[in-house]
Amino acid sequence: MKKAVSLMMAAAMTMGLAACGSTASTDTAASAADTASSTEAAASTADSTVAADGKVYNIGICQLVQHEALDAATQGFKDALAEKLGEGSVKFDEQNASGDSANCATIVNGFVSNGVDLILANATAPLQAAAQATADIPVLGTSITDYATALDISDWTGTVGNNISGTSDLAPLDQQAAMIQELFPDAKSVGLLYCSAEPNSVYQCDVIEGYLTEEGYTVARYAFTDTNDVTSVAQTAADNSDVIYIPTDNTAASNTEAIANVVIPAKVPVVAGEEGICSGCGVATLSISYYDLGYATGEMAAKILADGADVSAMPVEFAPNVTKKYNAANCEALGITPPSDYVAIG
Question: Which of 54, 145, 266, 281 has an alpha carbon within 20 to 30 A of 67's alpha carbon?
Fold first, then answer.
């Protein structure tokens, strides 16, 4: 009899615990439903390109190397997609190639094998690797100076015409040449310091050399092949130049401290093609916002993924604005007073 009573009490307790668990589960579910409802309501007020079917887009990001400009472009891209498609609608596989073209090929081939919905190629080498890896997956480049040079296109019309488009970081090279003339009217020689392994750096030097020659400067080129000879080549450039110009060059951007250790003691000013290089070793630049450039690329991606835009018909876009900027510390060290319309790099 005692055993029977014990069993009945145990059963009653079990039912009570089950009821408590059911209540807690119901409360949690209700809370989750309320949260989901609030999130859904918030999402409905966001951009119209938010995926209505709950699809999660997988995007592979291959960035050549870590430095300020490329980092900003990647962040702008991600922020644009999060805003346009919703935080939970995009999954990023973000990988850095550490400056190695072979790594770019490995990374991008991995994206293709995994069947990503879109590839962001941040810099020239990743773009070239993506062009070799796939003709089907949409590829958007950013931080690319000249697509015709990068992809060996002879009859450039503004669109690549296949599964590739994107944004260019090319600031007006004629205005950069004019900046050198404005800041250093008494200079006689300009050295072009760049990485010969980067096709877009070669392109920029080809173009700006013409403008500088027209302005009466003697122009010489000083090319390094990789990080190992940056210091020695920079020293040769400093020894033979009144002013040095560095284009938007990823190898230079990753070695600004080494360059600064040469040019600042030598009292040779550097005009740079972009703000990140100027921040490290330059005195002035005609700068674009790499974050804005990446953001514009993200907007292009949203149109492709959510609206079905044809990437082959999308023209390559450029940064909307350029700004004259100066490096206050380096200008002070070299005794340079920039004009009033220049903005100090923050």
Answer: 266
Range in 13-22, 97-106, 118-127 the model is least confident about: 13-22
Which tens digits make up the pLDDT trace of 268-317? 999 999 999 999 999 999 989 999 999 999 999 999 999 999 999 999 99
Q: What is the model's pLDDT at position 320? A: 78
Q: Which residues pair with 166 in a beta bridge?
A: 141
What tokens appear for 177 in the block?
A: 């040449």
In which residue ranges of the chain is CATH 3.40.50.2300 found? 57-169+290-315, 173-287+323-344
Question: Each residue of 296-326: b (16+ CB within 10 Å) or e?
Answer: bbbbbbbbbbbeebebeebebbebeebebbb
8 Å CB contact between 269 and 244: yes
The model's pTM is: 0.73
Question: What CATH number matches the domain at 57-169+290-315, 3.30.70.100, 3.30.200.20, 3.40.710.10, 3.40.50.2300?
Answer: 3.40.50.2300
- Tell me the pLDDT tens digit for each residue of 222-281: 999 999 999 999 999 999 999 999 999 999 999 999 999 999 999 999 999 999 999 999
Among residues 231, 269, 224, which one has the least CA distance to residue 250? 224
Right CATH number for 173-287+323-344 from 3.40.50.2300, 1.10.260.40, 2.60.40.10, 3.40.50.1000? 3.40.50.2300
Which positions ≥6 away from 102 have C-beta within 8 Å? none
Q: Are strands 189-195 and 243-246 parallel, antiparallel or unpaired?
A: parallel
Phi, psi torsion values for 145, nearest 5 degrees: -75, -50
CA-based R_g, the chain, Å: 27
Strand-pairing partners, residue 273, are none
Residues β-bridged to residue 167: 317
Cα of 192 vs its chain's centroid, Å: 24
